[in-house]
Amino acid sequence: MGEQALETDNSKASSKPTLWLLFTVLSVTLGSCVLVGYNIGVLNTPQTIVGLWIRRTKCIAKGGVPSEEDGYQVGDMWCEKLDDQKEATMFSDNGELNTLWALLNSFIPGGSVVGAIGSSFLVNRFGPKKSMLLNNVFAIAACLLNSLAPTAGSVEMLIVGRFLAGINSGVTMCVAPTYLNEISPDHLRGAVGGSLELSFVFAIWVSTIFGLPSILGNLEHWHYLLVLAAVPTIFQLVTLPFCPDSPKYMYFKLQNEDDTLKVLSKLQGKVSAKKEMAAIKEEYSHSKDERVITLKHLLVDPFLRRILLIALGLHICQQFSGIDAVKA
User: Cα 132 from chain centroid?
Assistant: First the structure.
C-alpha cells in the first residue's frame, strides 16, 4: 500500500476513517479479538464429542479397550459403551470426566487473569503494538498443544493449551482496547471500540456453526476446530507488522515528535493529526508530575481502593445479567 493512498486529504479534516486506520483496526480485531471469541466458544457445541474423546483417551491410558472395539469392559466408567441416554448423562455420572471438562473451560478465564495482570508490564516495556505481536507466542503455543492433543491422546496437553489460550485472551482484552483507543480520532473512538465486542461475539458465532455435527463437530473432525485457531494468528502476524505504533506511546516513551506526527497523519489525516498531537503533548506535560500507579497503590490508597471496588462491583453485577450465557 502506498502512503499517498492511505492518507486523507491534506487540506481538510474528514469524518471518514483513513485506510491506514481501517487496516490497523482489521488487523487487531480479526487477528487478536476474533481469536479470543473463538477460543471461548470452540468447545461449546461439540461438548459430547469432546467428552467421548476424553473417555476413550482415559480408557486407553489405563490399559483398557475403547468401547467402539471388541472386548471392552462392561461396567468400566471409561471403557463401557454408552447408549444415547448414558451419553446425555456421562458428565454427571462420571465425576472425573466432569472435572476434566470443567478444567478445559475454566482455564480460559483462569489464564486470562494471568494475562491481564502481565499485560501492564508488556505495554510499559514494549508498547501496545509489540505487546500484541509478542502475545502471539502464547497463541501459537496454545494452537500447537490443542491441535496435537487429540493425536497424542493427551487430555493434559489440551488443558495446558487452553490455559495458554487464556493467557493470550487476557493480554488481548487489556492491550487491544488501549491500542485502538490511542490510534483512533475522537469522533470514531466509540465505533472503533465497539468493533472489539463485535469481533468477540462474531467469533463465538462462527465457532458454534463450525462445531455442528454436520460440519466439524464429530469424532472424526473435531480436532480441526482447534487447528482453525491458527488462522487469526497467522493473519495478525502477516498484517500487524505493517501497522503504525501507538502515537501516544511513541511520544511518551520515545519522545519522538516528528515520527509521532507522521503516524497521526497516516491514521487521522494531517489536520486532525495536529490537533491530536497538541492533546498528546498537553497530556504528557500533566503526566510528568503525576505518580505512577501500581497494583499496590490500588489496594493501599483508600480513594483508589474505593474506585477499584466500584469497578469490581459493576463487573460482578454484570455477570448476573446473563451476558456470559448469551456469549456462550
Answer: 10
